[in-house]
Amino acid sequence: MLMSRLSALLSILIAICGFFIISNERIWAGKLAEQLISAAELGEMDTISNLLDQGVPVEAKDQDGWTALMKATYEGHLEIVQVLIERGADVNAQENAGWTSLMMAAQFGFREIARLLVQNGARIDTQNNTGSSAIMFAALNGHHGLMQDLQVMPANVNLKDRNGKTALILAAAGGFSEIVEQLIVSGADVNAKDKASDTALILAARRGHEKVVRALLANCADVQAVDNQGKTASKWAVEKQYTAIFQLLVTAPPCN
Predict the structure, then answer these.
(1) Domains in the chain and their CATH numbers?
(2) pLDDT digits (tens, 9 = 90+) for 155-165
(3) Among 25, 31, 61, 195, which residue carries the largest CB count within 10 Å?
(4) Which residue in 218, 210, 222 sits closest to 246, CA to CA?
(5) For 133, which DSSP code?
């Protein structure tokens, strides 16, 4: 009986020791992962290489779901991005809000990083938790060159975010005429409406973007479209006193 109790006690002690060993190992591994992500953010190449050589997973994530690749991309560290990809980083990983590394590159206009990500399989049609994609971020911020590198196709150019906005609507609202023209060539629907029933033309007219209005009219944008306030593009032009835009709208030839 005594031997049985001692044996059982010994088993419990071994289990407890094993638990603490495993817990300590996990804590240590977690700290190393945090160091990797921090090093990527700070641009510390040597630290990154040493940690990866020690076996720290390149796909380690922090509590917000950020990887080292995301941090390096966010800070614009091209060389580190390249090294992380070479070491097996997932270019399509998403953090807790659904952002990918490519979305971050598109947001800030890091063209070389975006090109590198796309060359290594980054998807341009992934959407985050608000429905935004890399294409939308490039359009929203006027990154024309980066938009060219994304090689937008008809299959993904008309994606909508949770407010119903497409990349074309965002570019038109921002006054980025070159991106508007590029998106139209890529197959963008010039008459798509968001949840407020705004079209690209209505927003361009409302905000006084004459070049964008010209580009949209040249591609059969509907001048009769009405938003949720019951206004057409021409009514907005009158209200905002954009005389040149009003003249463009009322003299626009009919489209076939």
Answers:
(1) 160-256 (1.25.40.20)
(2) 789 999 999 99
(3) 61
(4) 210
(5) B
